[in-house]
Amino acid sequence: MSQSEGLRDMSKPFFVPRIFSGFNLFLDEPQLLPDAVDLIARECRTKKAFIVTDEYAVRFAPKIMSPYQKRHGIKFEIWDKSQPDAPIDTVKECAKKMGQFKPDLIFAMGGGSSMDTAKGAWLLYEHPGIKLEILSPILPMNLRNKAKLVAIPTTSGTGSEVSGVAVISFPDGVKLPVSGALPEFVPDYALLDPTLTKGMPPELTAGTGGDALTHAVDGFMAPKSDEINQAIALKTIEMVFQWLPRAYKDGDDIMPRMKMQQAAMMAGIPLANAGSGISHALGHTIGGLFHIHHGAMVLLFLSYELQVYSKTTDRYLKICDMLCIRDKEDNEKSLLNLIEKIRSLMKELNLPVGLKNAGISRNDLENNLDMILEQTPTDPAFYFGWFDLTKDQLRDIFLNAYEGTLLNMKSELWR
Ligand SMILES: [Fe+2]
Q: Taking ligand 1, which is a single-atom ion, which protein residues have CB atoms under 5 Å away?
């Protein structure tokens, strides 16, 4: 990197919400010092707040609303119709209700889909008539003229509570990450109460935890990732390996729940500020087409991302160092050690290593391969990699991913 490039990098913005984590975020009694409730209530001058959630997480609404109602007289409207993958129709419906109620505070409560729905609806509320599908990613979104956003996650994976993207799905089955020139979708506040994630079923814990690990590795490896993002990403990777198996085995064990909630949030920070990775472009295409959990799919493609990036960068060695799996003599062996470590975790969590283990038939893959190869490069995450993959390279990844075999990086195609 030249000195001028280095200096230019220093002016990069770094967006994070104000983050509160713990068991005491929703207390009905005023505290000795101002707490999260006071700080957030101050943003609500109209005394009207709007909750975006789904039919599961709506059960937590009374707990969330209570201190704001009792201590600050805030009135709430609840909209609990968020759907998986945030279909555009539900986003529009949510925005319509927001427009009628006119809140100046929006609580996004739930998993990634509720947060994505809230973000999309928030943008439509601020700018009615805007078309999300043709929104330019290089223009500012100009949010926060009408409302601010508070994110309260009830799963631990998407990092949406700190990320600057909303993934919205459109009628043709395409999932589109929506964002602007700056990560303006990064919420103003993130409230992490681990008790809200208790009872998540093991499959969801595994899938969302896999998503968090992938965000952390993507965020660590991304070309734009600087020291701040790498520091957070590296610690997050360590935390996921340490705590995810325990959270998976016993959903009521509150310590692993808390650690995974924090890890998922931390992984979202480099995602917002350094970018995603090709794991997400590949995973979005297959996951969207065959309706497979996002986290399971992106984690499946993480091994391939690491192989592909290793052509250009040896930054993965720092992850190997941290996990004490580096072979000092042999970088290639270190890379394989890292992939093996990730795949062992996947097996422990009963996540598929190959697409054939994810319920996809060879015929299904081959019949859709042309479309898959067309669609993958249209995903913005495709361009967060170190270089653009050719169609033949993409095909090689998808066919290997079917079996779960690794790429032959010595072959003509990858040299
Ligand atoms: Fe993700």
A: 211
